[in-house]
């Protein structure tokens, strides 16, 4: 997850999604992941306090009125290059399960009232973002 001032996502030269301030979330699904894990990730994302308050402390969470979320499917998060120079993706989940959990994660956020934009599952995407900080977090269950 990356905190951004704004971000766009394009596929084959076509603008698919655009957000203003908020998060770009790279959502990867590995072998053994479940809906329960996807829900834990959504719950954590909604509770994270990584925006600055009036005292410049990281004390504020996503504001549904001010922030948006761009969720990007990202199987390459589970690429393993520890034994070779070319990554192995054997830890990435089957695409059918990965897409199911990706859509479920998005649904959970939308059901809570967040403005959520998406990429295109399995597509080659171009993401242009202005990072804040930069501030990046990896959250894995």
- Our estimate of the beta-strand percent is 25-35%
Largest sheet: 6 strands, mixed
Question: What is the number of beta strands?
Answer: 8
Taken in chain order, the helices and strands follow as EEEHEEEHEE
Give the quaternary arrangement of the chains. single chain
Separate helix tally: 2
Radius of gyration: 15 Å
Q: Estimate percent helicity.
A: 10-25%
What does this structure look like?
The chain is built from two helices and eight strands. It has helices at 35-47, 95-111; strands spanning 2-11, 14-19, 22-27, 51-52, 58-60, 68-73, 115-118, 125-136. The strands form two sheets. Strands 1, 2, 3, 6, 7 and 8 form a six-stranded mixed sheet that branches. A two-stranded antiparallel ribbon has the order 4-5. A hairpin with a 2-residue loop joins strand 1 (2-11) and strand 2 (14-19). The relative contact order is 0.29.
Topology diagram in text:
Elements: E1 2-11, E2 14-19, E3 22-27, H1 35-47, E4 51-52, E5 58-60, E6 68-73, H2 95-111, E7 115-118, E8 125-136
Parallel strand pairs: 3-6, 6-7
Antiparallel strand pairs: 1-2, 1-3, 1-8, 4-5
Helix pairs in contact: 1-2
What tags apply to this protein structure?
single chain, 8 strands, 6-stranded mixed β-sheet, two-stranded antiparallel sheet, alpha/beta, 141 residues
